[in-house]
Specification:
By secondary structure, this protein is mostly beta strands. The relative contact order is 0.23. The protein is globular. The protein starts with a strand and ends with a strand.
Length: 107
């Protein structure tokens, strides 16, 4: 499992469908890291329970997301998703050395 810390810049539109008589939902969110060379990272959430994790979040908020990469082949090409397993909010500590510290997880 991996982890990314960044500023929430977007929430993707929810997609739903049905397979084998069961309904499914997926969506996701996008963060920008605060590294020397910032990266934009899109993470996926699968299932209504995980999609509800996005409700208390606000654009511009710093978050930490645990995820695992998952790849699949289709038509001779490979596609990779970053499946989010947990989201934490982050607060700034008031000190000379300002650090990021995870609060209680959203989930």
């Amino acid at each position: 499992m991996a982890q990314v810390t960044g500023k929430l810049i977007g929430i993707m539109q929810e997609i739903s469908g049905e397979k084998d008589g069961r309904e499914w939902k997926k969506g996701g969110f996008v963060v920008v890291t605060s590294d020397d060379n910032p990266k934009t990272v899109a993470l996926q959430l699968f299932g209504e329970t995980k999609l509800n994790w996005l409700t208390p979040l606000q654009i511009g908020q710093t978050i930490v997301a645990d995820y695992y990469p998952e790849s699949r082949e289709y038509g001779g090409k490979w596609y990779t998703d970053l499946q989010c397993t947990r989201i934490y909010t982050v607060q700034r500590q008031a000190s000379a050395n300002t650090q990021l510290a995870p609060e209680i997880p959203i989930i």
